[in-house]
Amino acid sequence: MVTGTVVVGLDIGGTSTRALAVTLDGERLGTGRSGGGNPTSHGANRAAGELRAALRQALTDVDPSRVRAGAIGLAGAGRLLADPAGRAVFDDAWRAAGLRCPYAVHGDALVAYASGTHSPTGTVLVAGTGAIAAQVRELRLARVADGHGWLLGDVGSGFWLGHQAVRRLLAALDAGGDPGDLGRRVLTELTGSAEVAARPRDTVDALVQTVTRRPPVELARLAPLVVSAAGTAEPVAAGLIAEAAGHLISSTSRVRPPGDASPLVLGGGLLTGQTLLAAAVHAEARQCWPDAPIRAAGDGAAAAAWLAARDLPEVTDPAALHARLVPAT
Amino acid sequence: MVTGTVVVGLDIGGTSTRALAVTLDGERLGTGRSGGGNPTSHGANRAAGELRAALRQALTDVDPSRVRAGAIGLAGAGRLLADPAGRAVFDDAWRAAGLRCPYAVHGDALVAYASGTHSPTGTVLVAGTGAIAAQVRELRLARVADGHGWLLGDVGSGFWLGHQAVRRLLAALDAGGDPGDLGRRVLTELTGSAEVAARPRDTVDALVQTVTRRPPVELARLAPLVVSAAGTAEPVAAGLIAEAAGHLISSTSRVRPPGDASPLVLGGGLLTGQTLLAAAVHAEARQCWPDAPIRAAGDGAAAAAWLAARDLPEVTDPAALHARLVPAT
């Protein structure tokens, strides 16, 4: 057993939950991983169950009484905190892991931000299934743009890319034109065949019915088709990627003044890989904010651990602590 | 009791169902009106129930054995015809009214078209809750543009106007700006107050939650706010109306060549009133198709009756019959 102060960080996402127990020296004592647990989509009980599973793994070799602080990052944090029942479920899971220290709950955007920089002031842009941009001041979300969900916003997100790809395909079919390479990929994904019926309207009807039978947010599953088609210079896909980048930068500009030199952190599945969209957003951001460091979001659990640790009295240099706790991306 | 050939027409819409029994001379023997019965949204049983109620009223003073032909216009006609169970429910309702003649089922777009012109060839553009444009050949829908539903299309429709109005409001709130006159009307409609919270994000969250708790298609209920605000030159509303008109003309252009001189019929709640949107669409259509007669859709039940009657052997001049059966708008 190790001695010295330990902190715990958790990142609860839509597809996985990660936990980390780490000393203030940066020694990683344990990690845990469990299933997706976004409380907005799956409910607080499911989220708390995944939290418990990931925590148990991370604390296998750690005396829980040594854990002095904890933080949890998750989408919809505000709604969870506003709901006493949801909060109680999280409290129970925390205590069931043997933890007696307090813990904080942060939005996923703040945790993504902190995974890319130690600066208390800056901006974060996240694009995955949804999309949100936020100004960060004193490590709190100050102004926020978008994050309005697929029905009203998430412009430039994975949902948006998939939705637009289907709309472009429908417009091409209506006009009696060729569906194009991206269109054929979308057709195959949704109907099992790249063929257009003799009456194109039959294909249109089949597409509309297939999409409307499923939860709308599943349109985000088509985003990888758009990203990969753009990689082969497919013109419709390339256009959508450029448009998405423009929308994401426009949301960011709504909360970040021109020329701002504070860090800009890019997070979410669409912006952390080596994709054309990430490259396009990076290039546009470089033009708008030439003096700003632009960072990719990294390890959310480590960032949450850092957010938990930095308020401890023995922490005098949060920037140095960030360098020890959060792996550079 | 009147003698001579009688035909029956029905127009089953989302908000009301209308029936008409009329002689080939144009003598209106009976009309009926009942509740909305769109089978796509309400199911075939509900639609057939409204059909029966409207038919019973229209046939009060008519011997049903004198009815020689009938036609029913409704949204989602294709889906109804493809479903033997739905078709059987309609057959039962037809026979329950004492009718022994055959009847045809037409899409609402074709009936809207026939309510504005007797020409077998032309184009119809309908904008209400949804939006669709179609080329008509030999009184059948040939090519169709949009009509893809709120999730994937209906661009320029009532849904689109309401949806855009909320999105513009959210963008204004994100940017810390004034919501504007239209924004305040939308806020009041959705939250009961035109006030923006001290933290505008709280108002954003309240709006998003209010909208996402309801069926998305209810966003169409905000369309009248946009239309009326545009009437007072509110700039956001005026911009949305211009954009909607552009989208509707663009959908129409997808199925109608430039310079086409065949009739263009404008239908649906947004295009048949004296609204700014109707005026904008009319003006743009006049530019694209300067030689085309542009007509407003009229009495759908009468148009359905005409569609039923025109194939009867005693009808030698369908255009003259149209003039007798379908009131000019």
UniProtKB/TrEMBL annotation, chains A, B:
One protein family per Pfam: BcrAD_BadFG
Extent of the signal sequence: none
Residue ranges that the Swiss-Prot or TrEMBL entry lists as coiled coil: none
ATPase BadF/BadG/BcrA/BcrD type domain boundaries: 8-279
PANTHER family (UniProt xref): N-ACETYL-D-GLUCOSAMINE KINASE
Protein's name according to its UniProt entry: BadF-type ATPase
Origin species: Micromonospora phaseoli
